[in-house]
DUF5776 domain-containing protein (Secundilactobacillus kimchicus JCM 15530), 451 residues
Amino acid sequence: MSNLTSLKGLESLKELNHSEIEYLGLNVAKGVSLKPLSGLKVSDLSLQQDGMHNADFEALNSIEFTDPQKSFNHIELVGNTEYSNQEGLTNDDLTRLSPLFEKVAKANQGTKDFGFNLSNQRITDFSFFNKPAFSRDMDIFATAEFQVFSKNPIYIDPDTFTSETPIKVTSQVLGIKSEPIQTSTRIYNTSTGDWEKINKDGNTFVSTGNVAKGSKWLIVGNQFNLDGYPATITYENGQTLRTDGYQYYALKWEKEPRPTPTPTPTPTPTPTPTPTPTPTPTPTPTPKAVAVKGQAIYAIRAVGLYRNGQFSKHNRIKYYRKAKRINRPEFVVKGYKRDSQGHLRYRVQQYDPYKARYVKGTSGYITASSRYVVSAYYATKPKTKKIRVINPTGIYEYNKYSLSGRSTHVKVGQTLKVTQIRKYKYATRYRLTNGKYITANKKFVVFSSIK
């Protein structure tokens, strides 16, 4: 689907008899004026646009919101480009958009786990949301950020550097309580081009053998196909934060200076220095595929199924609307393809896990964006070690993790305690306290918050 190149005419929506718009979803090209949004009254908003740092904030702040519980449970201000939106929203922009955020929070009267999706931006500090207005079980979701840290470079002595030299890196991403956080899982090897697993000690990790001599940046990120979504950070007041990004840490190839304390002289006025422009890092290669061949994924937002990698209405086979978890379309990845602009597509066929068979006439291509499709199976155990059955017809426990040897039937709504997660081919299973196994498919079970 192409991005909108103009919003002209939207202002006429204010003249409708029923002036409230239940849902307004816009995928807008970079640089398109948002002025037509001024004064609109909406319940749910999804705005996708690169370059929002230069957007018309006055127009956004003038939007009025009503209780957003009719469809979505979040408001979206997201970029179109993952991990490399170099003109996306910044930390300061959150403050500039305070009127919008506060109006949304005030309008929300009853939607549980309501929040903001701020993915594909440049945000590195989420302490803006440490306010009473945002403290009621609010979820902040901000993945695929483009995060550059150049003010405090990492010094490396070129005379003593070898491929075995350890480089200590402390995260400069700040959570809602201004605490350093590190949810990324991989480091980019500038020599091989591979993403290698990092060993973390809290919010600090040590890089060894990942940086070639003379490299300008040390880069960490998240790899969905290997590690799934980043871990959710939960705060005492009920707020949650889930974020990751490509973090670029500037490297300075010289011995770290150790200043010698000297008496402070009487200050002499000096001209204000002209700041040296900070170079912008060239974005690293796009993350590897979310899913491997044979893996099951499902759509968390509306998606189209197309005959080939070039997405257009003419090529569309089927359109899947955003649905509740148990009704989300599930697909099995058969292959990959890129369109003429380099966007990754999945070659898939829809699969019905309830009937354990493929759906006829549903072979084609869908987006590989992690904002639209994710793994259909859990990759971790819940922190509470409990899951709840959501499949209306229930599930079965099995004697073997291949899900053979059917045993006890478990009704919808029942809670089970798990002790282990186990991989089986391209799927996962949960092992229960009684030694039995159940599916870890997200359409059948969900993490339970009951401890």
User: Anything to note?
Assistant: Residues 55 and 211 are 36 Å apart (CA to CA). The mean pLDDT is 86. The two ends are 43 Å apart (CA to CA). Helices lie at 57-61, 91-96, 98-107, 224-227.
